[in-house]
Structures are given as C-alpha cells and as structure tokens.
Design brief:
The protein is mainly β. It has 3 helices and 28 strands. A 5-stranded mixed sheet has the order 22-21-20-28-23, with no helix packed on it. The chain has a 4-stranded antiparallel sheet with strand order 1-3-6-5, with no helix packed on it. A 4-stranded mixed sheet has the order 2-8-7-4, with no helix packed on it.
C-alpha cells in the first residue's frame, strides 16, 4: 500500500465546514428535504417527521434513536412513487431522546446523493438530559473521548460531574473537562490501551443542574477499545502515514487545504463515517463554490466540517503533489466509491475513535472543543477544566 495514490479535490474543502453533509436550515438542500431541520430541539410527538425528494426516488431512509441502547429504529415507509418517507401510523418518537436521520436518494440518471441530520425530542420542563458519545456497545479507536452534551445549561457543574462515573478495565485515571455549560468530556492522560472496556454511568436523576432544574437520567453506556490506528497527515509532503499498533502500514498520497483555506493542524478524532454524503459550500460560508451530492467514503474529523474523504473529481496527479481543498483531506477515489481505491481501503479500516494528526499545515491547531479535539490540550490544563478536582 505504500505507493497508493490518494487525494482530495479542489472543489470540496472543508476547513471550517459544518459538514457539507448538513444544510443547517435545509434551505440550500434541494435534493433531500428532511423535517425536522438538522439540529432541531424539543421536537414533540405531534410534530411532523418527513423525508422528501423533488425528483428521483428515495433509496433508503432510517430514523434511529441513537440514545437508546438498542438503537431503536422508528418504523416508517417510503411512498409508492419513492418521493417521500413518513413514520408508520401509530408509531411515536421517544421523549428526551436524540434521533439520527439517514437518507439516500437516486436521481433519474442513477446518481446517488445522501443527507444525514439529527434532532432531539422534548424533555419535560425543569429537567435536563445528557447525550453521550460514543454509542453504547460500540467498538472504537484508542483516541475515543467520552463527550456528554446537555440539553440545558448546567450551573452546578460540580454536582453534575460527580454524578457521572467513567471507569475502565484495566483501570486508568479518567478526568472530566467542561467546555462551557453544556458539554462535559472525559479522557485519560494518554490514548486508551487496545482491549480496554469503558463504562459511562450517568446517575443524573434528581441531581440539581441549576436552581429548580434536575436531571432525569439513570443509564449506563459501555464500549470497547479496539486496535490502535493513528494516521499522520503531512500537509507539506502531501502524504498520510497509517500506523497500526505503532507500526507503519502504508503511506498514502493526499491533497489537503489550499493556501487560502488550509487544513487544521493537530490531533482529530474520527466521529462519523458515511459511505456517501453531500457537501454544499453554501452551508459553511463558501457560497456556491461547490456542491457535491455524492462524496464517497466521508470520515468526519471536526464539528466545524473537516473531513477526510474520497475524491473522484481531481486529476490523478493532484494527489501527493498539490493542496487544493477548502480544508479537507482528500484521497483518490472513483465516482460511487465502489472500486478498490485508496479512499475505500482507508474507510474500510477506520473506526470511530481513530486519530488523524495533521502536521506542517499553514493553519492554526484545531480547537479542543471542535469535534473530539481534547488530545490537543496538555494534561495539566485538561485537569484544570474539571469542576471537582
């Protein structure tokens, strides 16, 4: 694999993208329209849930409660003409839950496009809930950071942090760090050891988060740490070295962010993987510079929209030689992502929780709260962000 050709295209960058996959309000997404809009909160049981396409047909739609240990799917069906999806009559969404919507459509020429959105449902008045990353029973990379997002601002951060226990087998010290009043992350000093089993115990029921506001949860999330994979992207050399258990596996040619839109430096953790997704520059402040409806093998690295993804629109000689993106890292691919390509090879060997570290880029270091960027903060400062130490 050392001679793999890899890269990303000049049109797609994502160096500050919110995820071209998500048109935040839906206004710029004329391919797949999803209600509720991406990021919607306090969705009620009587609110409309629908996926539509103006032409072509929906290939698949899944609406899943990702906070449920069983990853419960909301029953629904695609209409006979393939243009819309709605829940089955009588089915209801759960309250105080987070849902993921995955939709893939095919146009009249057989081209696929995709959209992925999330929404959270209503929580009873004067109650709060925490949404946990990663998913229960998942197998993750050694760089996984436990992240809890609260639906309401927490004022008594010490009481809430004491009510969350993150333990591991074999045991290591795990410390919490607050980013503002709605996010609490946990990590050890170093990457997890492969094979470690981690348990997140939320004992939030009736815990005071603020005056007159109390927790509603009592749940446990467990995950297993898989093999170690850390990939080092050298933006100046246009290469990515992939290491397993510390040993080099492959060096892959890449294309990173262009001079005006460089890629972040620093350690970024994989949080999502999509076999195909849409990237639209209008959702992230790049106007109409690009709108690619079928980006293959897309791996999210930051919340702001940095992806490592397949690229089929750049010339072969771009990879390993030029940086042309808006901030993403590109690997050579083919349209549809179905061939034996560098992007497909890397995608098939990647876990949520794997680390991609970028060096020698002209941009600043990625912020610790942009995605799971906490590894970019030294241990003393991380511990200082705890409310109980």
């Amino acid at each position: 694999m050392a001679g793999l050709v890899v890269a990303l295209a000049g049109l797609t960058g994502c160096g500050g993208l919110t995820a071209l996959t998500e048109g935040k309000s839906g206004a710029s997404d004329d391919t797949i329209r999803i209600v509720p809009e991406d990021g919607a909160r306090a969705v009620g049981r009587s609110d409309r849930i629908e996926v539509k396409v103006p032409d072509g047909r929906l290939e698949r739609v899944r609406v899943m409660e990702v906070e449920d240990a069983r990853a419960t799917e909301l029953p629904g069906h695609i209409s006979e003409n393939g243009r819309s999806w709605r829940p089955e009559r009588g089915s209801e969404i759960a309250l105080a839950a987070k849902y993921l919507v995955e939709a893939v459509a095919v146009d009249e020429d057989g081209h696929r496009s995709a959209r992925h959105t999330t929404f959270t449902t209503a929580v009873p008045t004067h109650r709060f809930i925490g949404y946990v990353t990663p998913e229960n029973r998942s197998t993750v990379g050694t760089g996984m950071i436990v992240s809890i997002d609260f639906n309401r601002p927490i004022r008594d951060r010490a009481a809430v942090e004491r009510a969350v226990a993150v333990t591991s087998d074999p045991p290591v010290e795990v410390v919490g760090h607050w980013f503002g009043r709605t996010r609490l992350d946990f990590r050890p000093r170093e990457y997890w050891r492969p094979g470690t089993r981690v348990t997140v115990d939320l004992r939030l029921r009736d815990v005071p988060g603020a005056p007159g506001m109390y927790g509603i949860q009592r749940r446990t999330v467990g995950f297993t740490v898989g093999r170690s994979q850390v990939s080092r992207v050298d933006a100046a050399k246009h290469t990515m070295e992939v290491r397993r258990e510390g040993a080099p596996v492959a060096t892959v040619p890449i294309t990173a962010g262009a001079r005006r839109t460089p890629t972040y430096n620093g350690k970024m953790v994989v949080t999502e993987l999509y076999d195909v997704t849409r990237m639209d520059g209008r959702t992230v402040g790049f106007g109409g510079e690009y709108d690619i409806k079928d980006v293959p093998h897309a791996i999210r690295l930051t919340t702001s929209g940095t992806f490592l993804h397949g690229n089929y629109w750049a010339s072969d000689d771009t990879f390993g030689a030029e940086n042309t993106s808006h901030g993403c890292i590109g690997l050579h691919d083919v349209k549809g992502g179905r061939g034996a390509t560098p992007a497909g090879w890397f995608f098939d060997r990647t876990l949520v929780g794997d680390v991609v570290e970028v060096v020698n880029s002209k941009d600043r270091k990625v912020a610790p709260d942009n995605g799971l960027g906490g590894w970019n903060m030294e241990w003393k400062k991380w511990r200082a962000g705890s409310a109980v130490l």
